[in-house]
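Researcher: Here's the sequence for the chain we discussed earlier.
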Amino acid sequence: MLQALDPWPILPVILTSSLTAPFFDQWWDNTVAALESEHYNRICEIYIDDMTNSRWDRFAAAMQKPFPELTHLRVWICRSVVPILPDSFLGRSAPRLRQLILRSAPFPSIPKLLLSASGLVMLSLTDIPDSGYFSPNAMATALTAMTRLEILDLLFRSPRSRPDPASRLLLSPTRLVLPALTRLRFRGVYVYLEDLLTRIDAPLLHYLSITFFMDLNFDLPQLHRLIGHTQVFRAYNHADVYISAPSIQLSLYPKTVVANHRSLRNLRININIHCRELDQQLSSLAQVCSSSFPLIPTLEELKIRQYGIFPSSHSGDDSQNTQWLEFLHPFTALKNLYLTDQIARRVCGALQELSGERATAVLPALRNLFVRWLLLETLQEAMMPFVTARQLSGLPMVVDRWDD
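Model: Thanks. This is the structure I predict for it:
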């Protein structure tokens, strides 16, 4: 195959290899042979899926030189232990690279390579193993020259991706602007994201997806600053909360795209927290949705749903009622609240504890409470003390069925 290239004009070469493809062994041998050949400098795109341990050494050795025409590189590695990519990967230089996608690839020195890749449009590093850890300060420095970067994914595999406390004291106060960034995805511990956001701003961001590993305390001033300084996010006035056994998620989006569910994928803020117990979920989300979160005090509609098995809880009803009230307290502009049945039983139980002047301390703007699947008569009876107290305070509200 390689000899057949000799009589042809100098054309760009695209290499694609997949474990699921027919005749994979032959395909793979041809792919690596092309990387090792004298024609490697004509390769402009490389796509390799499902890399295995047995094939790693030869591939890694073939990639230790510069690829002057390379614009797209995607390497997906099977989730197994593989050696760390050395500093000499791509010859430490990738001046023409536009798209870099690595999955499960341990490459702790990647920030050094990225310093030469100022033309990147997409940088996607997912399922980053512990052996591939790099600091947020090093990554922020690497991003400095990426004025064309539109998509950034940093997804760590485990909560061990926690910055060294000593290194956090060395963070530079200088903040850089990523003028083209529109999508940011992150998965890891919250302190890593906070350290990264200390160094960057993204005024055109319109899609933000964050997954945090469980922590006892969430202090997120930089995340709140990023959201508050992004113009598009100011129109996000609707929210959904999804509760399930493995996690709790908050999604925010603008009212203008409610009818067009497809567009939600491109205009949304997702904040997901991995924790299995309901009391931890509520406590964590309450910290994230504190009054300093720029959008929460302006939200007008909130839907809280459960999916699959409802999470367990070790706290008693009184403690859980307090957690629900703490979570709902910052939603001062909320007019419409939608609840599924299991959620409604708990939220209504918490609201019933509010009477007299306290009945207006939580959700003061609430006008409509909608519940799905629960008998309307049962709900209205359970909520009567709270509804009456609101009416006496001059804040009438309606309890009705949610037919979704």
